[in-house]
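Hi P.,

Sorry for the delay on this. The queue was packed all week, but I finally got your sequence through. Input first:
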Amino acid sequence: MLSAFRSALATPDLRRKILFTLGIIVVYRVGALLPSPGVSYPNVQKCLADVDEGGVYGLLNLFSGGALLQLSVFALGIMPYITASIIIQLLTVVIPRFEQLKKEGQAGQGKLTQYTRYLTIALAVLQATGIVAMADRGQLFGGCQDDIIPDSNVFKLAVVVITMTAGTALIMWFGELITERGIGNGMSLLMFVNIAARIPGEGAAIFSGNGAMVFTVVCVFGLLIIASVVFIEQGQRRIPVQYAKRMIGRRMYGGTSTYLPLKVNQAGVIPVIFASSLLYLPDLISRLVGTGTSGWQRFISDHIVNQSSPIHIAIYFALIIFFTYFYITITFNVNERADEMRKFGGFIPGIRPGRPTSEYLSFVLGRITLPGSLYLGIIAVLPNFFLELTGQGQNQNFPFGGTAVLIMVGVGLDTVKQIESQLMQRNYEGFLK
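Then the structure:
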């Protein structure tokens, strides 16, 4: 692998792409640490010492690399873009116009990308407004009473909202630049960097709070989790597909054998994001209503939001399984796949084309979705069991579980494959011999 990296850096155009990607990442991390105008940075640091990151903005703070709770220029991170992309992807099934654009190839995809950008800006404005309003009312950091925005007139608050929204637009541009001129998928790489930036701090917190022995056990446990995730993420059910020979003009085409790959984790990390977002809606409603101590607010705080609560773990696990089936049903249309295979003369050996093929694909997909959903649920709730076993409370984080490890492993594998493919084009051995 080291020789492959050496070969990649020795190739001028590939080295240029890698250095360009690293440069964008450095600029992005600088912006994530730069406070927004009008925000009191010392007061933010005081409040961060006692903040509960298991609350409503815990997931968003993870995707922003800790920039959200610091109210920096890039505080929103790429979460608005992720949400907009998921919404547009789901709307392609509901809105016929979007479905038609998806089938038009590159031109239609360009239109959908433009709609995603517009929706990202709209979501960024809404999200920035909510964050600034909660910071101004003293609800973003729980019981912290320090003035986060000392001069809280309408103009100053609007400047902070505009700054965060502009930061989101700049992040979108960074991601597209990496995709076009760098290595890998830009948005995924920025998400990878945000999550990786939090690991040293979380590891240091575990080491200082629990000692070297617990820190070593956590590291070994984390390596086992990462190896397991890599193994399962690479798992596929390959359905053989045979294409019949066809005469087009004077030439014979077809007659080839291939396969249709169905991943064990066909839904990726989307169900975990859906479940996390939905699970924190009650906390958001409770905070917007006020800081009262009514029975339902205490129940939400003690059982729904508390990550070490058995009720939270059970609901979280069930939501992940539900959204896995829901997302795969929407995004993988077995009838369309069967029609495409029949249109090009393809068939599954032993299965008749048309409806029998779609029923067979639905049967196989249902069988591999169950272990895939259980795998996602187990990986996602690992940090919750860690909190329960160690008794550290919600402020302690486990850096090798849940959404973080799923995203890091997926993005890492995809980036390595892209570098390897470019090396193979230049007749190098690549990472895999």
